[in-house]
Amino acid sequence: MKKSWKRPKSAIADDNHCESLLQQLMVIFPNGDPGYFRECLQYYESDHITRVTDKIFEMGGYYPMVTTCDPVKQLNHALRILATDLFPDCEVAYLRQRLLQYNHSHLEQVSDELLNEQARLPERLEYAKISRSDMFRSETYKSQAQTQLAIDYPQAWKSSIRAVLAENNWDYLNSYDQLREIGPGGLWIALRNFVKHWIIPGTGSSSSSNAASSSSHHGAAPQTSSFDPDFMEDMEALRRRHLCAQEMTDSELARQINEDEYTKENQLITCNCCYGDFAFEQLAFCSEGEHTFCHDCITHYISEGLFGQGSLRGAARIGCISVEGCQGSFSTEMLERILTSDIWSAYQHSLFEESIVRACRSVVRCAACSYCEVDESIRPLDDTKSRLSYVLTAAQLLLMVVVAVMCFLQNSIIPMLTTLVYCYTFAQWDLQADLEIVYGRIARARRGSIFRCQNQACAEMTCLQCNRVARGLHNCLERDQDGLRLYVEKAMADAVTRTV
Ligand SMILES: [Zn+2]
Ligand SMILES: [Zn+2]
Ligand SMILES: [Zn+2]
Ligand SMILES: [Zn+2]
């Protein structure tokens, strides 16, 4: 790749000959990047294999390798490394655009270019995060997404669908959502009516496309055997979304009908907390079976206990909330059914955190979410502390015996006083606190202060010292120093204003 070995192009005229040379190189250098070898071959007039091989040996045996033959997968592999490890704060679209400029050694060439770039790189809002919609898509995916969107939105122009797809990096789900947001506005309605009444009057083709649209909405997807795997995954995600929305609508309708029936029969039951009237299915009972509460009251109680006062964090038993001093509780199965998924998940996390802290004191936590894990970088303090305590107590006793014997032998007042002072000092020494301080310092030195959260939904890097999100070369006092600098600058500006 160095400029020194670039020569005037002498393209190999015969494609078959080029492919044959490439195959030989691929045998000599397994997993090598064919694009890189192809470019190398173009720079030599004769002895291609020998000269390319010599060049690679001159470079210490290094040559760009690929993990897959699929060019889209190669690009996605390079993009993932660039976006998450090498340039975690650079805009993903910018990295994508740069990757497309090269046909081999993408990772190396883009890294070189970005590192040599003088201008500031465009920044990303979410540090070191890359979503599925940011990845490159195959031509099959693009074509299938375009066809499917034309079926989903028969009222939209194909050029508009292409524009929306291009704007959303050819992601089917995001384009689907954007086209739905655009909706059948006045212009779309006019166009649809125009098409319906003038181009295909009475043929029913529009209605057939609508039927196809509704069939895809309700999950009866057309032939999917030839679909791109990524596209099939997106279609499945969309189908699940529609099913969830349908389920919620049906559930709300059923609840309304049930409540109307109870009201008509005058059989509503009163909640013991908010004193509202509810149908039997909308109530929960304590384990004593005497108190009834609506789902909203229990949800509010648990939310307050978890996120407000925190009294329910890690509580294995949630007691009855009746004011009558009931000894009952709410069962776990019932809470799981009633609570929303995020509240239930937060409660489960609090239980897990409590039990792991009880089992092992060496726990590291993510400052951005509730994730925590056992710190295995150093032996637990309890073991070390008990051993060191025995050693130090034995050393103390030994030293006291030696000093006492010396004092007895010399029969002097000064060693006796020294012994007394020494014993007093040793009794005052808080061995446990000092051991914990030392343990903390050693643990920090071994583990480092930056913690990478393994929770997929969070995946933040946080500082264990200042509990802030860490970006690049983190300095805990950076913000404080900025605040101090701003304070001094403001004070100086005020002083100048007063003197003018
Ligand atoms: Zn209530
Ligand atoms: Zn009760
Ligand atoms: Zn986290
Ligand atoms: Zn910090």
TrEMBL record:
Pathway per the UniProt entry: Protein modification; protein ubiquitination
Region Disordered, residue ranges: 209-228
Keywords, ordered alphabetically: Membrane, Metal-binding, Transmembrane, Transmembrane helix, Ubl conjugation pathway, Zinc, Zinc-finger
Transmembrane segments: 388-409
MF terms (GO), sorted A to Z: zinc ion binding
Pfam families recorded: RING-HC_RBR_RNF216
Keyword match Lyase: no
Biased composition (Low complexity): 209-221
Residue ranges annotated for the E3 ubiquitin-protein ligase RNF216 RING finger HC subclass domain, each copy included: 268-356
Claim: Metal-binding is one of the keywords in the record: yes
Entry protein name: E3 ubiquitin-protein ligase RNF216 RING finger HC subclass domain-containing protein
The organism of origin for this protein: Syncephalastrum racemosum (Filamentous fungus)
